[in-house]
Write a structure and sequence with these properties.
Layout: H1 4-7, E1 15-16, H2 21-31, E2 35-39, E3 46-51, H3 52-66, H4 71-77, H5 97-107, E4 112-115, E5 121-125, H6 127-150
Parallel strand pairs: 1-2
Antiparallel strand pairs: 2-3, 4-5
Keywords: CBS domain
Domain CBS: 8-65, 84-143
Pfam families: CBS (PF00571)
Length: 152
């Protein structure tokens, strides 16, 4: 594995910017994810990211301004385009994993969207992907070490 293409997740849950905060919350709950790429009507053009933090911030705002009794109703009425991040750092599939990994470590973002040169969403890379890769490499290293030790 050398590039983002080798590690990125390509089977994504995505939303359109017209989906509601309630929709985003439900997708996050069902799929146990914290970040959802938002795409245009074509289903591929990247528009931004809606994060669990964005949803929580909006929910707290609704409760503080309107009370708990209005939370579910207003989450259904609020479109994610009003709460999502649109100024998002992205990467390309040919970016070195070391570059993407360093970016994730230094910036503590929940995901790094991977786009082609036309702005089409190809996948995402998350810190969890890097942890999974580290575990695989450590296991492989351990197995290699055990094999070398047993052949002596």
């Amino acid at each position: 594995m050398k590039t983002v293409a080798d590690l990125m997740i390509t089977k994504l849950q995505v939303l359109h910017d017209t989906h509601s905060v309630a929709d985003a919350r439900e997708v996050m709950r069902l799929h146990n994810i914290r970040n959802i790429p938002v795409v245009g009507d074509d289903g591929h053009t990247f528009k931004g990211i809606v994060s669990q933090r964005d949803i929580l911030k909006e929910s707290f705002r609704i409760v503080s301004e309107h009370g708990m009794s209005k939370l579910a109703e207003l989450e259904r009425q609020t479109v994610i385009s009003s709460v999502m991040a649109t100024e998002v750092i992205t990467t390309t599939a040919d970016t070195a994993l070391t570059t993407a990994g360093r970016y994730c470590m230094e910036n503590k973002h929940g995901c790094l969207p991977v786009l082609d040169d036309q702005g089409q969403l190809l996948g995402i890379v998350t810190p969890s992907d890097f942890v999974r890769l580290c575990v695989q490499l450590l296991e492989q290293s351990s197995e290699d070490h055990q094999l070398r030790g047993s052949s002596r």
